[in-house]
Amino acid sequence: MNNNYVLSVIVENEPGILSRIAGLFSRRGYNIKSLSVGETEDPKISRMTIVVGGDKQIVEQIKKQLQKLIDVIKISELEPEASVCRELALVKILANEENRPSILEVVEIFRGKVIDISSETLTVELTGEPQKINAFIDMVKGYGVKEMARTGLTALGRFESKAKVIL
Amino acid sequence: MNVAEAVIRSLENEGIDTVFGYPGGAILPIYEALRSSKIKHVLVRNEQSAVHAASGYARESEKFGVCISTSGPGATNMITGIATAYMDSIPLIAITGQVRKDYIGKDVFQEADIVGATEPFTKHNFLVTNAEEIPSIMAKAIKIATTGRKGPVLIDIPKDIQLTAIEYKRIKNIEITGYNPTIEGHTGQIKRIAKKITNSSSPAIIAGGGVNLSGAKEALTRLSNTRKIPVINTLMGISSFPMDSPYYEGIIGYHGYEHCEEIIKNADLIIIIGARMSDRATKNFSLIRPDTNLIHIDIDPSEIGKILNYQLPVVGDAKGILDRLNEKLDAFEGDYWVKEKGIIGNIENGNNGDKSVEKESSISAKKFLKAITKYLDDDAVITADVGQNQIWTARHINYSGNRKFLSSGGLGTMGYSLSAGIGAKLANPEKMVISVMGDAGIQMLLGELGTLAEIGKKIIVVILNNNLLGMVRELQDNAYGNKGRFGIHFSVSPDFVKIAEGYGISGKVINEIADIKPVLEEAFKTEKSFLIDCRINAEENSL
């Protein structure tokens, strides 16, 4: 049964930590769907949000192997009902004078923002759950997506007690 | 003092008396600090040997091993040794010189990203960029290497940092935020194990390398004796349990005994202690049924449930857990169930269906090793290399009493035996050390005969010489039939005794069965190192 699991990993902000984590996943054949990382309130600590594909047993192994890394401080598995997830996407759509109004309609429905425009393209900034971003891209595919940059999922638990924490 | 001196001082404070290494430009300051230290430096002939020697030293002493090399090729030569130690969980610190901090990344002479390269093979590694951090880095490195599941830690120090002056302070008990291994087993789990054992009628123990690393031999022996539980070893578990015990049943796995599989099949409870049950031990993961009543005791939580489904896991140090378990168990007054069920193994001869072709006149490696057993002290240390020699040495020497078996089980690195033997001997010079290897294995790190000659302590080097890569020959025969033999023969084989004598080490060749006794007598009687080139039957198989 292959599912996606969201792991929120607190790590020491040491040089090379991203490489260690990526190396671990690659070496053991684990499937990273997306990875986003940034500083937390404490500049010496970063939070990594990793979406992994697999089954329950594999995810247990991943959590245990991650815990073995010295720079990994804490791992939480974020369940869908007990967490909030967001992703940011920048989508450059082929847009000319004729179809621009209909594209802008779609953008408004999805509550996106136009952040760049040219005679041939229109770049939209969109944040939301990954499904919302997928839906938007589906809608504008027909017009032609020239380029796209997605950050991957980032997430936080909603209540400390609900998230599964490993110390 | 400068960083280099601080590094040496940290090692002295931990009671390290011997380091193994090979100097070069980027590690000069460390060597200058070593020069005026009481620590003995052993110059090897290849940096890979330095790591194997540190490994042998660590396994024989209660301390960790230390190996030192320069930057670039010196460091990369250590990679195989470090990976070897990582797979077998041996505590050691590898110190490498690095080019100046401002040169890093510019592809200068003898520069290599050793931190990146050893990341898969170290518990952790450090590139020292701030000289002030060296006392805490040394403390962290040592803590990481020697606690929890032990393993190698590498410290890469740029040359200019080595020369930087700092305030040295000794740090004891350093805290590492992301590192808190569980040492004490959970009391509730231990109680449950005791109950399961008491209620089982045919329990069996599989003891692995973790029992050796934990120093849990006595505790394991007590458990087995109290409840009359059969003990089976994985390869790395050999010498974790006295083989002269009535409850010792043998080795499990590809190169193990069939009756051990019988015991596993008939057991109603299996207790795995300090074994990670990889493909070798479980015969490609097939040996233990998924529905087995399984208790898994290991210091590394990631090993529990990695391969086998457990009913009852306990994370912690084997010795501590077994000591507490023993307190909860009463003696079992019944009969030994293995005997009752009639499962009898033929370990006396160590042969469970020897399928190889034996010529009357040629020397059988198995019989030769059995002959050696008679001369071994009660606490002799036997190192083996990798290949047929490893399997023969594992199966045909009686590891009774306090005898030790040291080999590279996880990575299976050829060349391990002699270098590890040197390290083991220096850790405990009073103990007898025998290093067994094939003619291919010794040629991997042949120069270490020079290191052996220099240490001035005695090792008996036993070469099981069949002029070819014996284990590969077996694998090719199995896969492709006899016609499949390719790329395994040495058409030029040296006179190993002449080479040894070139290094000032005496030796003798054994060509016929009649030579065995006199050569062994001479080898064990002399006070100095001795090399035996034993010409064995090339058709003999490992089983």
Topology:
The complex is a heterodimer of chains A (167) and B (543).
Chain A: E1 3-12, H1 17-27, E2 31-39, E3 45-54, H2 56-68, E4 72-78, E5 83-94, H3 100-109, E6 113-117, E7 121-128, H4 130-140, E8 145-150, E9 154-157, E10 164-166
Chain B: H1 3-13, E1 18-22, H2 28-35, E2 40-43, H3 47-60, E3 65-69, H4 73-76, H5 79-87, E4 92-98, H6 114-118, E5 124-127, H7 134-146, E6 152-158, H8 159-162, H9 187-199, E7 203-207, H10 209-214, H11 217-227, E8 231-233, E9 248-251, H12 258-266, E10 269-273, H13 279-282, E11 294-298, E12 312-315, H14 318-327, H15 337-340, H16 365-373, E13 381-384, H17 388-396, E14 404-406, H18 416-427, E15 433-438, H19 439-444, H20 448-455, E16 460-465, H21 470-480, H22 496-502, E17 506-510, H23 513-525, E18 530-535
Parallel strand pairs in B: 1-2, 1-3, 3-4, 4-6, 5-6, 7-8, 7-10, 8-9, 10-11, 11-12, 13-14, 13-15, 15-16, 16-18, 17-18
* Overall average residue pLDDT of chain A: 92
Shape of chain A: elongated
Distance between the termini of chain A: 27 Å
Span between N and C termini of chain B? 57 Å
Order of helices and strands of chain A: EHEEHEEHEEHEEE
In DSSP terms (H or I, runs of 4 or more residues), the helix count of chain A works out at 4
Question: Helix fraction of chain B?
Answer: 25-40%
